[in-house]
Each structure stands twice: as C-alpha cells, then as structure tokens.
Design brief:
Oligomer: single chain
Radius of gyration: 18 Å
GO biological process, one term: base-excision repair
Family: Belongs to the Nth/MutY family.
Protein name: HhH-GPD family protein
Order of helices and strands: HHHHHHHHHHHHHH
Shape: globular
Number of helices: 14
Keywords: 4Fe-4S, DNA damage, DNA repair, Glycosidase, Hydrolase, Iron, Iron-sulfur, Metal-binding
CATH topology of the largest domain: Endonuclease III, domain 1
CATH class of the largest domain: Mainly Alpha
Organism: Vulcanisaeta distributa (strain DSM 14429 / JCM 11212 / NBRC 100878 / IC-017)
Largest sheet: none
Length: about 230
C-alpha cells in the first residue's frame, strides 16, 4: 500500500498542467497561489466561501471585482455592508446568504485579532466549524491553503478517487476518511496540497461517477478499478 501511495504522489507531481487547467497552481509549499491563484490568505478564505456550489470561473470573475473595489481583505469585508457585498458578488449562487456569512466570518476573525492570531489558536478547526456556512471540508481547506496547517480536506472526489485507486472504503464518515488518508499519506505541506488539488482535478476530468474515463486517466496503471475494467 505504501509503495502504491508513493507512486500515486509521484504521478500527481507530473500532472502540473492538468492541475492548472482547472485552477490549481502548484508552487512552493506555503504559497496561497495553490488555491485558484489567490494572492493572500484573505483571498483563500473569501473564495472558500464563494466557491461553495459555484463554478470556479465565476468565483475568479467575482474575485477580480472584489480586488478592484478593495474588498479582497478580511478587514474590508468586516467593514462592508452585507447588502452591498451581495451586489458585488453577483454571479455566485446564494449570494445574499454568502454575503452575510462572509461579513460575519470576517468580523469574528477580526475580533480575535486577525489571521495571525487565528493561526496560533490551538482550536482553529473548532473556531472555523462554529462559523455559519463553514463545514468540515471548507474548514480544512482554509486551514491547509490559507493558514498552512497540516490537515487534509476530504471531498467527494477524494473518496471516489481513493476508493477506486486503492480499493479502500472507510465508510461515508468524513473523519474516518480523514484519519485513514492522513495515516497513509506522508505528512508534508506540499504533499497534502498536491494530493487535494490532484484528486479534485482527476475527479472532475476523469474519475466521473458514471462512465469514468479510465483509459485517459493519469492513474490508470495504478488504479484497481481501472485495471478491473480491462
């Protein structure tokens, strides 16, 4: 199993162009640019809320709009009127709800002293999960890509790709998957970001729920499911 995981990670290292085609930008381990080209941790957090049930291309357009208006920081969002923000983020799904949630989140982060203080908190995940609209995957994504905290987000793509490639199935429980994969994958910031970006990319482009494109998938030689279909 460990040998297969290592080969899997090496394959992920070789698909940089694939990752970039869907908005992941592998650079140095601590860069926020992994996350859709985000320029700051603030932008990671803002877009982590906006991208929920919304396409990344729409979020990129909205982020550029926020940048032009100076609304791409936690401080500026905290001081924004939610109704005005909802107009600015027009195009994202549930924009009025997301505007309210973003303002509340930004204000709560500001109250505790900003992102640096949040990064130092021993209960970062609990803090994030207590924010309206922040679920476990979003919380772990913010921790990994904005705060550089070693934690692995688990998406539906993660479950589908790893269950097919490795033949594992810890069940539907998020934390069971998280524990299983964090035990298997080397604990390294670059690797965690690479794995998350790669499984989402492969899940979107090849490892489809129905009629997966196994013959075109970069993991076809490693994948138990793909080999079983031959």
């Amino acid at each position: 199993m460990n040998e297969t995981v290592n080969r899997l990670i090496e394959t992920f290292r070789g698909i940089k162009s694939e990752l970039e085609s869907v908005g992941w930008y592998p650079v140095d381990a601590e860069s926020t640019r992994w996350w859709g080209g985000a320029e700051t941790p603030d932008e990671v957090i803002i877009t982590a809320i906006l991208v929920q049930q919304t396409r990344w291309d729409v979020v990129h357009e909205v982020l550029n709009r926020l940048r032009k208006l100076g609304l791409n920081t936690i401080e500026s969002i905290a001081n924004a009127d939610p109704n005005y923000l909802a107009e600015v983020i027009k195009g994202v799904n549930y924009r009025f709800t997301k505007a309210q949630r973003l303002v509340k989140l930004a204000r709560n982060i500001t109250v505790i002293g900003g992102l640096e203080r949040l990064r130092l908190k021993g209960d970062v995940r609990d803090f994030l999960l207590n924010q309206e609209g922040v679920g476990r995957e979003t919380a772990d994504s913010i921790m990994l890509f904005a705060l550089n905290i070693l934690t692995l987000p688990i998406s539906q793509y993660t479950k589908r790709v790893f269950s097919r490639v490795l033949g594992i199935n810890p069940g539907n429980d998020y934390d069971s998957w998280k524990r299983t994969l964090e035990d298997l994958i080397p604990r390294d910031l670059y690797t965690y970001k690479l794995v998350h970006a790669s499984v989402i990319t492969i899940g979107k482009k090849y490892c489809l729920p129905d009629n997966p494109l196994c013959d075109k998938c970069p993991l076809r030689d490693l994948c138990l499911y793909a080999n079983g279909r031959r």
